Amino acid sequence: MDWDDLRCFTAVARRGGLSGAARELGISAQTAGRRVAALEASLGVPLFVRHPSGYRLTDDGRAMLGDAEKVEETMRRLRDNAVARGGDVAGVVRLAAPETLATNILLPGLRYLLDRYPALTLEVVTGIATIGIARGEADIALRLVRPDKGALTIRNVGRMAHALYAASPHVDDRDHPRLIGWSSAYDLPARRWLRQHFGREPDILVNSLAGQRAAIQAGIGIGMLPCFLGGDLVALDTPMRPVEPLWLIAHATETISARTRLVYDELAGILAANAVTLAPER
Fold it and tell me: Is the pLDDT confidence value at 173 over 70?
């Protein structure tokens, strides 16, 4: 039995389909499908029933899932212990990420890793500006745009969905509401969506999502926010919404340090565990 096949099986079971599993593992959906089929062939039993809406576990699949997840956790512990024995867990790993993702998703999930490796120092740099991996400005970066050049390790680690929010379902002047958003200096999907949908620039320009959310919460106007920031705001019905891919980036595999690889894999797992929070079904 191949470990990579087993890993694909647990990912498909968690995600309910090949696409979600592929995003979690950083592979193509076709590769995930081939690995699941190979595992089924080696076992001689079907593990999933294929439906148009996704993959559903068979009775054999459900019976196997618990043991497979235990193997997955054991492999994770073995990896962590191997890194620890290598003595390369002390030192600094610099992470660049958008502030809202860092504070709401990444940092809360990193406690296990930091408790386990107290000599590991994590430096988190937040903001909209692109921090260069190749220039040595960060060891790991979480980005909304995939780099198209450079010797890099790149993994698609999920999606981030947006919605149009207001403080109340009763929006003043629905045909021409006051818009809150980014200035033209920030070429972001949320800004482009507002421009396309309303045919104009925002009335209130705020250069942070926290500030935009505060303005929406105060009833100043409506704006586009990531769904995980919606909270008690009212999501307005829209014909479409922007969904951005999330890319986790580091130096090329052959040059990445053990401590950076450890943090990189942990971040990928955190984002996979928060997939529904980041891109909920409408």
Answer: no
187: which 2 tokens?
């070429």
pLDDT, the chain, mean: 86
Where do the domains of the chain lie, and which CATH numbers do they carry?
1-83 (1.10.10.10), 89-157+247-276 (3.40.190.10), 159-241 (3.40.190.10)
Say what the pLDDT of residue 280 is: 87
Over the stretch 239-279, which tens digit does the pLDDT of each residue have?
778 888 999 999 876 567 888 989 999 999 899 888 889 99
CA distance 160 to 12: 20
Could you tell me the pTM of the whole model? 0.68
Three-class secondary structure assignment of the chain: CCHHHHHHHHHHHHHCCHHHHHHHHCCCHHHHHHHHHHHHHHHCCCCEEEECCEEEECHHHHHHHHHHHHHHHHHHHHHHHHHHHCCCCCEEEEEEECHHHHHHHHHHHCHHHHHHCCCEEEEEEECCCCCCCCCCCCCEEEECCCCCCCCEEEEEEEEEEEEEEECCCCCCCCCCCCEEECCCCCCCHHHHHHHHHHCCCCCEECCCHHHHHHHHHCCCCEEEEEHHHCCCCEEECCCCCCEEEEEEEEECHHHCCHHHHHHHHHHHHHHHHCHHHHCCCC
Task: Give the C-alpha separation, 215 to 222, whole Å.
Answer: 8
pLDDT at 84: 55
